[in-house]
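Hello Y.,

Per our agreement to keep a running log of every chain we model this quarter, I'm adding this entry. I've kept the format consistent with earlier entries: sequence first, then predicted structure.
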Amino acid sequence: MLSRLIHEDLYEEKAILLSRIGQHESALNIYAHKLSNFQMAEEYCARNYNPDKEEARDVYLSLLRVYLLPPSPTPPMVQPALDLLNKHFQRIDTPKALEILPSTIPIANLKPFFENVLRELTKNRRNNQVIKNLLKSQNLQTREELIQARSKVIKITDDR
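Predicted structure for the entry above:
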């Protein structure tokens, strides 16, 4: 069926079919380059993103690739890529995203992205420290209860 649609202009239908067979990058390519509809591309990512499935974990990264590594005559779409990074930084693997970014993008344009990522990392670190300290406190309480249970004297007599 997909081969029948190759030469026709049914781009949205092609994207849906490509999505169903797991070819996310090809489907996103249609939304970004053929339809020039960045919102539909992001909605596609939101529908298909699943951090637990390997094939759907990097769908936002695939869209970033589509924006920044387009087919040869098309120039990279830097502004939509920056908007994507700023909006969905939590769902994009930061080291992989930095590898894709062209070196021509000024650092000042990436500042909001870096701020968001650092803020999120700091928040996660603080939350982990709180959890660690709560677990440490629970461990100490359990040890204290164990010491108290072991220190009780049990007297065994003939009656009991």
